Amino acid sequence: MFSKSARRFGPALALPLALALAACGDSADDAAVVSSEPIANIAAPEGQSWSEMVQVTEADGYLVGNPDAPIKLMEYASLTCGACANFTQTAAEEIKTEYVDTGRVSYELRNQIHNGIDLTMAALVRCGSPESFHPLSEQVWLNFDEVMGTAQQGGQAMEAAMARPENERFVAVAEATGLLDFFAARGLSRDQARQCLADSGSVTAIAERSNAQSAELDVAGTPTFFINGRQLDAKNWDQLEVALQEAGAR
């Protein structure tokens, strides 16, 4: 389970990658979703699909789909979490096509920050337009072994990077872990990435929001799912899909 001490901002940046990987997959038990009658599909605006519509929420989550959907799915996820990667590899496309595109379900993704690499990637997936947040996050999880393998190899350089001044720190982490090259290959230029990461105030604010929200909502690990504000004990797509259908997405 993701420990309370690891949630604090300072220690979260210093956590080794191995600890972050071990922090995945513990969702707190909570009440089941209340069963609902089936909800009819809701048409998207003409010429658009719901899965193409993205907005940033007040909590700095990235919501895709109908903002007024009667079923609101929210996931807390870490970009260094293997269980989160497995969930994306298993479910991302089906969530969009079978649920979000019906207009009945919106899907909001929020980051829980586990370490300095995690925070650096969370800043990078925000560096483009809101519409690029989900695709870039998915690219990290779809290529999880590659991303984490390269990051592990740069471990010593990353430790040195974390000792740099804040306006240099996250750029140095991205260089040491191969993240500048990874995101450049997916449309985020190295110059744009460097500019985003040099804004240390914006970067550290992501971690601060993560810490505050994790404490407020009792998000103990990742992935953690909510439907209409209720935290679930679902830990994989099979369990989550049952909950969505019970909520009326059938």
State the main characteristics.
50% helix; globular; 250 residues; 13 helices; 10% strand; disordered N terminus; 6-stranded mixed sheet; alpha+beta
Provide structural commentary.
The longest helix has 18 residues, at 82-99. The radius of gyration is 18 Å and the shape is globular. It is of the alpha+beta class and 250 residues long. The protein is built from 13 helices and 6 strands. A hairpin with a 2-residue loop joins strand 5 (224-227) and strand 6 (230-231). The chain has helices at residues 4-7, 9-14, 17-22, 82-99, 116-125, 133-142, 144-153, 155-161, 166-176, 179-184, 190-198, 200-217, 237-246, and strands spanning 54-56, 62-64, 71-77, 105-111, 224-227, 230-231. It has a 6-stranded mixed β-sheet with strand order 1-2-4-3-5-6, sandwiched between helices.
Strand line-up of the largest beta sheet? 1-2-4-3-5-6
The rough form would be described as: globular
Order of helices and strands: HHHEEEHEHHHHHHHHEEH
Gap from first CA to last CA? 33 Å
Give the total of beta strands: 6
